[in-house]
Fold this sequence. Notes:
The chain is α/β, with parallel strands linked by helices. It has 14 helices and 10 strands. It has helices at 2-20, 37-44, 47-50, 66-71, 82-90, 134-142, 157-160, 174-180, 209-214, 216-235, 237-251, 257-270, 285-297, 307-310, and strands at residues 24-27, 55-57, 77-81, 95-100, 107-111, 124-128, 148-152, 166-170, 190-192, 203-208. The protein has a 5-stranded mixed beta sheet with strand order 2-1-3-10-4. The protein has a 5-stranded mixed beta sheet with strand order 7-6-8-5-9, with no helix packed on it. Helix 6 links the parallel strand 6 and strand 7. The radius of gyration is 20 Å and the shape is globular.
Amino acid sequence: MKREFLVLFLNMLVMLVWAQGKAFVFTPQWTAQAQFAGYYVAEAKGFYRDAGVDVKIEHPSSTLPAMSRLRNNRCQATTLQLCQAMEIIDEGIPLVNILQTSMNNAMVIVSARGKDPLTQRGERVGVWSVGFGQLAFCMSIKEGLDYNWVRFAQNINLFVSGALDATLAMSYNEYYQLVQAGIQLSDKSVYRFCEHGYNVQEDGVYMTREYYISHRDQAHRFAEASRKGWEWAAAHPEEALDIVMDYVNKERIATNRTMQRLMLHEVLRLQVDRESKKREFRLRPDMVKLASRLMVENKMLEHEVTYEQLMDK
């Protein structure tokens, strides 16, 4: 009886904290899609509520990207690729990684007309205007490719129209857009960074160190509930996809369920560490060291960014 009363009391206490607390705004780095399924699941299934965190998911816009929202205190946490986070820290904005979802790199170069991307010296290669191309810049410098980088906003239109000789793509996103567009892809025409010494982790959840220091417990509860959301999505992919499509439809994103199913499958695959074969949800010190070395060598960072700078140290 006493144990039942204690459980009831603790549950009521959690609900009271949740009801009285200020909303915790979380901004994914892109528009609604299966790349962020775990967070949608955590909200929809009540995992954040159960953890006592009043989470509000707000997506970025073209005029107010995710990092701008974080800098201007419009959100408390956002997702960033590891290389992006390093650049921001190097610029003088301390960040803390509170959850790492990606364990493998998803970036590829897709070549037109079946060419090997490593033979396309000086040719026009698409890169996202919002960033994400740090490893590609490192690779092109190291290989002496001297690519002519052409910025694109968010889709494959330039490549499909023939305006590009090759394009960067994420294996969970633009790669499948190209497949759906009927583009014939082969092992020869697709360069996968993870297979050529550039297997650097990507998506993680970050917040400013200033906010983290004063809200450490809240950050940990948010991270744990988000991890629970991802684990649930991995165990129930079709139900998770239902939740994703609710967000996609609410945000009026032009996509389809088949595309989002492919994305979710690939994102979940990338979360499994190649060595342990487990979904570890941790930042690997060796990958931090690799990314920092590559970016310092190619003058994308002025100073080394260490694992300790990214963590709660």
